[in-house]
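ingest -> validate -> predict -> emit
validate: passed (alphabet ok, no gaps, 434 aa)
predict: started
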Amino acid sequence: MNYLLPFILITACFSLWGFANDITNPMVKAFSKIFRMSVTEGALVQLAFYGGYFAMAFPAAIFIRKFSYKKGIMLGLLLYAVGAFLFLPAKESGIFYPFLAAYFILTCGLSFLETSANPYILTMGPEESSTRRLNLAQSFNPMGSLVGMYVAMNFIQARLNPMSTTERTALSDTEFIALRQSDLSILIAPYLAIGLVVMMMLLIIGISRMPTNGDKNKQINFFPTLKRIFSIPNYRQGVIAQFFYVGAQIMCWTFIIQYGTRVFMAQGMEEQAAEVLSQKYNIAAMIIFCVSRFVCTYLLKFINPGKLLRILAVAAAIFTLGVIFLQNIWGLYSLVAVSACMSLMFPTIYGIALKGMGDDAKFGAAGLIMAILGGSVLPPLQASIIDMETIGNSFPAVNASFVLPFICFVVVAWYGTKTYRRSIKMYEKYMKVY
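emit:
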């Protein structure tokens, strides 16, 4: 079968969940302001968002095993659209928690999508080029992310009432409710629009002929399969590395707004203007991330994936030290530079961990998607540090909070080193045999 059209359609889904991820990151700050909450309370958005990934990963794997990759993707798109449309009744309620429910349902759909699409891409061609093929498909994920960031900046953040959190606290209940509902009307519009786009994609994939690679085995054998895949060091360690990588990615992209706002307000800028300018730096980081992913996909033709993963993780850790200790614009530049290093990490960890798994890749993919829980658990921890405002007498807490991403990149570097050494040993054994 010709894989070109199926590859294009599934790759388009990568852009769709990229949009959802990166329109959501700035919403931590937006919801905190709209509902007069702390950063820690606002970070519950990330808890609900990435909690959906965790909750639905293995149910998605069972569904895909029983039916097919195509049906898994279609159900994922349906849940994505339903979650997006639920923003309308959430807005009408005027309460924060229905938004968390909408995010959770939306990301249950994303969990189905990612559990299906990533291993599906791996089946669309020879195994030896599977990691490069997944990196290529994942290169279109940040394109959706860029659109999400652009929409967040220009159609949400720039249109919200510029009144600061402190000024909102001083409003009467009646004034606050009117302002809150006005801001929520602005916030939900892009989510309703993407819901319509996702429904269109669902129809297109539904009528398209898709490959059935890896859909022949319908047996579940859940616990024996789990025992088998977690006995593989490459996979077991890959799940750990993915947990910490996703946590680092979400922390760096979510709290760049808080980091940049502190830098620019120290220069005398108003809070609203500082937030919008910080989002521009976030978009710059995503552009760098996108370009770097294409470059790294090319480099994988010449450099061992584990070795390249280690190099970039070490570089990311060094830049993160700059984020922590530089309390000016150079710290923000360092935070933007981290994105160049992160570009390779998710698909490469994914590809290394699933390599050679065959039909077990469906359950293996679920474990790696569950590891996205790192994006749910770690950002609230960072937010709780940021809410301290200062560490000691004067050290900015937002700077100190980036010690968490630093630790994450050390873990990713460890995984890159382990996988590279294993590949060297396998090559040496191969050479002895031949």
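The radius of gyration is 21 Å.
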